[in-house]
């Protein structure tokens, strides 16, 4: 059976039933690169790359994007959960990680993601989601540094709600919500982790989890596909340092990184949505009350955790 959408009749939420996912391997018991499908020399274990850097195939690859062998969504009919699912292999180095990466490597990864998003956008999916899982509690199954890109033909209700919210804010105020929030955080200052002018790093006032962190570049694009070189450079410079700071301040927590983006193929979107990176550490578990109500319960105060992250980053860099 291919992946299939099933709608929860009570909540209207969608879920994907995807039994093929159960077959995916894990390598988390040790740090061995012995059988890793993402290591150089084992390219035959993945489908052929849909993108790689450098483009010259005589040179060893630095970043490879390959179709996911255990895709969450796949091309298909009817109720099928259709779309594409790629893995972005971020480095040839099995033991590498975003927190150890330099800005050049990170810019190469972000640039590869942008290229892939451009190709996917041209096919007019409903949404493109770029994300990275780090650590078992965040759902990682393989250690080798990688991210994922999923394009969905249909827009799931949770994402549609996010977009509707931003769109209504724009209709009421004429302003972009993400930009407005960034401005407000910048002037309040208390939750700012770093502000270079090109990029703002802050922890939102209503953070749903401890150390939830936003990185937003000065870039008027709704998605990664339209991001400027300057924005990618600024992001590439900040992201590994923030990941390293987070690892230092909370003992390398599991986290999910999500590139939040607006709708694909909506020419107005750049006016009311701006792409940004959200980091969501997995330091506490969602329990009964959260499940019953959708409430996030954050046991820490962003006004305190933001300065703590800032200090951890400063200590590392001094
Ligand atoms: N995977 C793959 N080819 C393989 C082994 C794994 O495409 O030979 C995929 C796997 O389906 C998974 C991804 O690599 O989606 C690894 O992702 P991650 O560890 O972030 O977490 P997961 O997606 O398993 O939750
Ligand atoms: Zn590897």
UniProtKB/TrEMBL annotation:
Obligatory cofactor(s): Zn(2+)
Domain Galactose-1-phosphate uridyl transferase N-terminal: 80-156
Protein name according to UniProt: Galactose-1-phosphate uridylyltransferase
Free-text remark on how the cofactor is bound: Binds 1 zinc ion per subunit.
The keyword Transferase is annotated on this UniProt entry: yes
Pfam families in alphabetical order: GalP_UDP_transf (PF01087)
Active site residues of this protein: 146
GO molecular function, a single term: UDP-glucose:hexose-1-phosphate uridylyltransferase activity
GO terms, biological process: galactose metabolic process
Positions annotated to bind Zn(2+): 36, 39, 94, 144
Keywords: Carbohydrate metabolism, Metal-binding, Nucleotidyltransferase, Transferase, Zinc
InterPro entries hit by this protein: ADP-glucose_phosphorylase, GalP_UDPtransf1, GalP_Utransf_N, HIT-like_sf
């Amino acid at each position: 059976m291919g992946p299939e959408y099933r709608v929860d009749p009570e909540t209207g939420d969608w879920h994907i039933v995807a039994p093929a996912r159960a077959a995916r391997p894990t390598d988390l018991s040790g740090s061995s690169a012995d059988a890793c499908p993402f290591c150089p020399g084992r390219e035959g274990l993945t489908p052929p790359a849909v993108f790689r850097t450098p483009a010259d195939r005589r040179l060893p690859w630095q970043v490879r994007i390959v179709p996911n062998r255990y895709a969450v969504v796949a091309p298909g009919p009817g109720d099928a959960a259709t779309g594409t699912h790629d893995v972005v292999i971020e480095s040839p180095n099995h033991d590498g990680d975003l927190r150890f990466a330099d800005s050049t490597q990170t810019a190469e990864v972000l640039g590869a993601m942008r290229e892939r998003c451009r190709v996917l956008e041209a096919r007019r999916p409903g949404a493109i989601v770029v994300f990275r899982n780090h650590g078992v509690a965040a759902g990682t199954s393989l250690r080798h540094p990688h991210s994922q890109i999923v394009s969905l033909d249909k827009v799931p209700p949770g994402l549609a709600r996010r977009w509707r919210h931003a769109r209504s804010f724009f209709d009421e105020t004429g302003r972009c919500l993400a930009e407005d929030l960034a401005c407000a955080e910048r002037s309040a200052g208390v939750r700012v982790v770093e502000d270079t002018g090109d990029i703002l790093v802050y922890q939102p006032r209503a953070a749903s989890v401890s150390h939830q962190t936003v990185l937003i570049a000065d870039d008027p694009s709704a998605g990664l596909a339209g991001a400027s070189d300057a924005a990618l450079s600024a992001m590439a410079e900040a992201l590994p340092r923030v990941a390293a700071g987070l690892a230092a301040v909370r003992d390398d927590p599991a986290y999910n990184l999500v590139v939040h983006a607006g709708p694909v193929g909506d020419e107005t979107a750049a006016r009311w949505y701006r792409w940004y990176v959200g980091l969501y550490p997995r330091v506490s578990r969602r329990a009964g009350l959260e499940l019953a109500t959708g409430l996030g319960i954050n046991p820490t105060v962003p006004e305190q955790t933001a300065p703590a992250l800032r200090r951890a980053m400063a200590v590392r860099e001094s």
